Amino acid sequence: MRVLLANNFYYARGGACSYMFALTNLLESKGHEIVPFSMHHPENFDSAYSEYFVSGIDYVESLRRFGIGTGLKVVSRAVYSREAKNKIGRLIDDTVPDIAHLQNIHNHLTPAILYSLKQRNIPVVWTLHDYKMICPNTSFLRDGHVCERCKKTRYYNAPFAKCKKGSFAASLLAGAESYVHRTLNIQKMVDVFVAPSDFLRSKLIEFGLDGRRIVTLPNFIRPVRSTSPVVKGDYVLYSGRLSPEKGADVLIEAARHIKGAHFVIAGDGPERAALEKKAAGVTSSRIDFLGHQSREKMMELTKAARFVVLPSKCYENCPYSILEAFACGKPVVGARTGGVPEMISDGGEGLLFEPGNASDLAEQIQRLFRDDGLLNEMGRKATEKAANKYSPDAYYKKMISVYTSAQDGYAYERSRQKELRP
Question: Structural domain of residue 260, as residue ranges?
Answer without folding.
Answer: 236-388
